[in-house]
Amino acid sequence: MKYFFLSEGWGVGRVWEFGGLWNESVWRRRPDILRLDLGIIDHGERLWLYQVEEAVLMIEVRPLNLADSDSGIGQVVLKRLISAEQAIAKLMEAETVFNRASA
Prior knowledge:
Layout: E1 2-7, E2 10-17, E3 20-21, H1 24-27, E4 33-42, E5 45-52, E6 56-63, E7 76-78, H2 84-93, E8 96-99
Antiparallel strand pairs: 1-5, 2-3, 2-6, 4-5, 4-8, 6-7
């Protein structure tokens, strides 16, 4: 499995696998992307931890509501997904760790 942190208010767009963009008709399913019940606060920003399957190479993320986005950023492609060990290290060095119950 691979992991990434995503700011609250952002969602997953397109997904890439080894052969290019994820093709649901070829795979016969959507990619396994799961928001875990764990997050961190980093520089005052709430980031949720996501888990993705090994076949995923890159993920496009974008604000869920573009009209409310004051950053001027329309989309971002995460090229570097992290390992479980890297996710644990990030959790251990975070200012604050929270779960869904405490969110």
